Automatic annotation (TrEMBL):
InterPro entries referenced in this protein's UniProt entry, alphabetically: BABR_hydratase, CruF, CruF-like
PANTHER family membership: SLL0814 PROTEIN
The organism's place on the tree of life at top rank: Archaea
One GO MF term attached to the UniProt entry: lyase activity
UniProt source species: Natronomonas pharaonis (strain ATCC 35678 / DSM 2160 / CIP 103997 / JCM 8858 / NBRC 14720 / NCIMB 2260 / Gabara) (Halobacterium pharaonis)
Pfam families cross-referenced by the UniProt entry: Caroten_synth
Protein name: Bisanhydrobacterioruberin hydratase
EC number: 4.2.1.161
Record's keyword terms, sorted: Lyase, Membrane, Transmembrane, Transmembrane helix
Positions of transmembrane segments: 25-43, 55-77, 84-106, 126-147, 159-182, 235-262
């Protein structure tokens, strides 16, 4: 009787690379475009009930858009890196539960839409899938843009932290506009309070420092330079949240999304193969 053997890790990584590379345009452009349309249709009440803010449809779309980043990171996932990601997952849940239950550090808010299964009815079970890619994408983009300056942690870390907070300046106004969550007291920045961004400075700093310690930044830089699709998840971010912000007239967040798109253009990432 033949024993069952799991495929070797290099084989799985190679097949995942091929899968993503062969479907780059669909993953990085079609999925976020469809996502933007369905989110806006849900927010405007024009989608039928089974589809409107369907949490599993939403979760599936997010998971597909994350595939380029997952495939890109996979060869670098050492025990140390995996441990670092587990620490960040735990931190993500802890800080979000604290925020929902106490209002610290983001300000008092509550979810208006279930983003997949919810833990204790308060926090999305897939929360790390939403948050951690923002940190990793910002880190990778900054490595490419900083060049030789990236060698200095005193430069690298604060710039990546600023890039992460900047991504939330794009994300939060759009999420509030479609009803994902709402802040009890509102806020001057598109109904988002300044305390939210103070909280993001804290969370971004913790996350970037842990990520920087868990991974070899030289290895990350080498991988993102050679792996053309590794930042496609950031392409999806720009398209999805840029469109949503523009639709609701959130022009500053929309312009910030364009700014991240410009950063991607500077790294020469828009080279989807013709199929």
């Amino acid at each position: 009787m033949r024993s069952f053997e799991l495929p070797a890790r290099p084989h799985v990584e190679r097949r995942l690379d091929e899968l993503v590379d062969e479907n780059r345009f669909t993953i990085a452009v079609v999925f976020p475009a469809v996502g933007a349309i369905t989110l806006l249709g849900s927010a405007e009440g024009v989608l039928p009930e089974p589809l409107s803010f369907n949490p599993y449809f939403l979760l599936f779309g997010v998971a597909v858009m994350r595939l380029p980043l997952i495939a890109g990171i996979a060869p670098l996932l050492t025990k140390r890196a995996a441990a670092g990601l587990l620490v960040l997952c735990g931190y993500t849940y802890a800080i979000e539960f604290t925020g929902v239950l106490t209002g610290y550090p983001y300000g008092h808010f509550e979810y208006g839409v279930d983003l997949g299964p919810m833990l204790a009815g308060h926090v999305p079970a897939a929360l790390p899938l939403f948050f951690l890619p923002l940190v990793v994408n910002a880190y990778l983009l900054c490595l490419l843009l900083l060049g030789s300056l990236a060698r200095r942690a005193a430069v690298r870390i604060p710039i990546v932290v600023a890039a992460v907070v900047g991504m939330d300046l794009v994300l939060d106004p759009a999420a509030v506009a479609v009803g994902f969550w709402a802040y009890d007291a509102g806020g001057l920045y598109y109904q988002v309070p300044w305390t939210n961004y103070a909280g993001w400075v804290l969370s971004a700093t913790v996350s970037v420092v842990v990520l920087d310690r868990a991974f070899d930044w030289n290895g990350l830089l080498a991988r993102v330079e050679s792996c053309r699709f590794m930042l496609d998840d950031l392409v999806s971010f720009v398209i999805l949240w840029g469109v949503v912000n523009a639709y609701f007239g959130n022009w500053l967040p929309a312009l910030l999304a364009v700014g991240y798109g410009y950063g991607l253009w500077r790294t020469d990432r828009f080279d989807f193969p013709e199929r």
